[in-house]
Amino acid sequence: MLLRGLSYRDIVFCIILTLSILTLSACEPRLPRETSEKEISKPNFVLIIADDISWDDIGAYGHTGIHTPNLDKMAQKGMVFNNAFLTASSCSPSRASIITGRYPHNTDAEELHWPLPAEQTTFSEKLKENGYWTVASGKWHLGPQVVDRFDLVDEIAYAAPDNASGGDTWPRLIKEAPEDRPFFMWFASWDAHRPFPEGELPHKHTEADLRIPVYYPETEMMKRNFLDYYDEIARFDMLVGNVVEALEDKGVADNTLILVMADNGRPYARDKTTMYDSGMKTPFIAYWPDQISQGAQSEALLSAIDIAPTILHLSGTDIPETVEGKSFHELFHSPEAAFREYAFSEKNWHDFTDHGRTVRSKDYRYIRNNYTDLPATPTADTVYDPIWEERVAMYEKGELTPLQQIPFIAPRPAEELYDLRSDPLQLSNLALNPDYQDVLVKYRQVLDNWMEETGDFIPTIRSLDEFDRSTGEYTPNRQRPRPSKMDMYGKHGAY
Q1: Percent above pLDDT 90 for the chain
Q2: Could you tell me if 315 and 124 are in contact, meaning their C-beta atoms sit under 8 angstroms apart?
Q3: Where is the composition biased (Basic and acidic residues) (predicted)?
Q4: Hey, which CATH number is domain 347-489, 1.10.10.10, 3.30.1120.10, 1.20.1730.10, 3.30.230.10?
Q5: pLDDT value at 109 more than 50
Q6: DSSP three-state, residue 187
Q7: What percent of the chain is modeled with pLDDT above 70?
Q8: What DSSP assignment string belongs to 191-212?
């Protein structure tokens, strides 16, 4: 017997000591066996936004000529969304919509360069309130009133060496993220915005890589321009690869959801600022090792306003009532599930006055042009590029096809309807086709209902052009400061 030879006092002491140890052990907090520290920690989020890249100009979406190995790898190990749509094919309105989860006309920042007002609620500030370290780096373009919605705003000028060459800016910020807080990072690249500067890029494309849409003339100048555009996409891909590597080096890649997208389509006429898929459809890749279905593709219809509620939901943060989107988190595990029936987008002032609305389903796109007296002039950065001067000359000589002439034609049709099953590039307008009148009536009503539900109106006055439509020459006619909502929309306007 172990207790033989001990005094009564010693025996009592041993018993008390043993009971104390057992009691302390029983009271020690423990995690359930099925719950790990990784599971109870909040996930990190990185949103990477390209500038002016169309959805089908990435290898994962079928363009095998463009060098995007990092994005392609993310797609293989993550999830590709094949029907993700922006609410505006215009830089700052698109970004304002993403960060608020609201349609542009409800952000009060629906026209290019209009700053997001302070009274708007952003999902970054909600993450910040919930303990997240929040950072925005790269292109800002949201105005001064919402800088405080992030812990740090690191605005990078256009083509700055560290951002343009894929230096250490974004990896450095990841490295500096606090160890005791989850983080959200809004990384906004300038690639592939015009002008395309000369210099060393990670990959040089050749003419064999080209795939130019039929609505562009394939001149030597246009080919060289497209190759420059491709080279900038390759640089964006390198930036994305740097981010993934930095997350892995920090040991947080498995607990970080990366979303990669663009703010609008490629910077060419009939793409950027238009309401076609080439302007409104965005590449959208989700990468979150071991947390989402790897290598999956989802055909679910998404809107950019759905990003905010999805991130907020996954972070355990309350979703503000101002948000007009809905969380698509369930698609990460059920990519085949249905989500939206329609995606709505809009066109407002971008260098030149214009106004239009569109609704997209999986089968059709319906477009309503409200300023039919004006041609579909592209952005100013396209108009003052030499490729536009060449195209104007070709138009005047009658050397363009009907599709290539569209940016010069006025009046425009008030309505456009495209059957995406037979016409995915939206080249043949069926609005006047008698066989599609029932479809036309249906989509008119769908768009009307959405406008009424979201408080959307056609402006009673127009913001003036800021550039000459033929030469791109700056003409400071636009009203600054901007007109009030009352001036723009009248007493019944949306606020």
Answers
A1: 78
A2: no
A3: 484-495
A4: 3.30.1120.10
A5: yes
A6: strand
A7: 86
A8: TTPSS---S--S----GGG---
